[in-house]
Amino acid sequence: xxxxxxxxxxxxxxxxxxxxxxxxxxxxxxxxxxxxxxxxxxxxxxxxxxxxxxxxxxxxxxxxxxxxxxxxxxxxxxxxxxxxxxxxxxxxxxxxxxxxxxxxxxxxxxxxxxxxxxxxxxxxxxxxxxxxxxxxxxxxxxxxxxxxxxxxxxxxxxxxxxxxxxxxxxxxxxxxxxxxxxxxxxxxxxxxxxxxxxxxxxxxxxxxxxxxxxxxxxxxxxxxxxxxxxxxxxxxxxxxxxxxxxxxxxxxxxxxxxxxxxxxxxxxxxxxxxxxxxxxxxxxxxxxxxxxxxxxxxxxxxxxxxx
Length: 307
What we know:
Low-confidence stretches: 300-307
Distance between the termini: 68 Å
CATH superfamily of the largest domain: Periplasmic binding protein-like II
Strand content: 15-25%
Largest sheet: 9 strands, mixed
Order of helices and strands: HHHEEHEHEHEEHEHEHEEEH
Radius of gyration: 24 Å
Number of domains: 3
CATH class of the largest domain: Alpha Beta
């Protein structure tokens, strides 16, 4: 069987990623007929169609999905080689693909900022998404590393804690419990709660704590972002549990308060995570070592709010 060329695989990967022959041609500065011809040759080499068209959209066939996985693997190998070569020259060049859960967006840019100052030759891609989407990306091995508050149970991963994640109860500044001390959890359970969506690490930790005492939060509203929760708390719609990282910059405004509740704060950890068996690139390994340094110097990343 004839071997496919690297250029053909590059074209195929672009089409699979962009979902369009036209956009792939534009990205690679080729004409669409050239792209179509090369993909036909690649399909002939494989012996099966790689794409199917339904209406105006194109989709990968089963063999197309398998080839797409192979292309990603080849891309990782080549990228890793480039990084190794740069490392042997005494340089740190390459790329880092990092995906984090929503709450981590409050500190991840600072981590990356310091890292990029140390290694200005590194190109960084940061994606922020909810836990479900992050797990989906992890299962498909789309990134180098992931940051989350609770490693998954249903995916075989390597996970290491590197930063404290403190969860506290917040309420409007004029709330009736604002000046109370050691508020019983049973009393708190009567208050209207604003919580993140099902599957959120913060929600899981909150419901687990209440469940240990045979209680559950009095759910008033489920919201999809920390910002929406903060604004709803400020507006008097209820109380909530959030990571301190989410409101560091809001503290001076005094629009809400941290309640003194028995069982709180909940002290959790932030983890960097990657699929077990994954070969980390030189840049990813360097970033992991950097995060381990952060563990030793984490006071600079902690929220100024304390209990």
